[in-house]
Amino acid sequence: MLADKNPELIEAYEVLRDRADELYREVASRSSSSDAYYRIRGLRPQRMSSLKRAARFIYLNRHCFNGIYRTNRDGHFNVPYATSRAGALPTLEDFRACASQLSKAQLRNWDFGTTLRYVRANDFVYLDPPYAVTSRRVFRAYGPRDFQIGDLERLFGHLERIEKLGAKFLLSYADCKEVRFLARHWETSRVAVRRNIAGFVASRRRAYEVLVTNMQMAS
What we know:
Strand content: 15-25%
Helix content: 25-40%
Order of helices and strands: EHHHHHEHEHEHEE
Shape: globular
CATH superfamily of the largest domain: Vaccinia Virus protein VP39
Distance between the termini: 29 Å
Radius of gyration: 19 Å
CATH architecture of the largest domain: 3-Layer(aba) Sandwich
């Protein structure tokens, strides 16, 4: 099962799974220019077919600044154009390979609370939520409603339930005091990751995430 709160993402996966060739042609037919990008960004997806909506989603992802997904408070995608090194479009073979893998999954447009109710004994659950950190500003504007500290506490309540069910989980999150406190009963590991949000390469830096799991980690 693959679940996400973003309906455009899940719909794009569904269209990719069912209509990979058509979707590739739709995306490939669009210009990579700045003018084309802002024209396509300005379209309202609610007025489009599922195929064209999925094509718009993928096109914007490949041509926007650092491949970020962000919307304003009205739910409109607002990431600027990548003035250099816009993402190359995957090949038709890549589209078909992804479609083959997606055909093996259940796709759900759900909040994590709904999704995690379906966990059963012996399942494996990977979680990669947006970050909510009180001590510093982190980029987490995934949608019109941000992930909050209260959501993080709710998430850890679900992790406790998952463990009681006899299932395994792995959570990746920003290394911060909130998550370390909530995860104090489980194994944690600090890992360095590359952050690509900064506009200039020289400003990009290594940051740290923490992995939280109820499995034994390799030393």
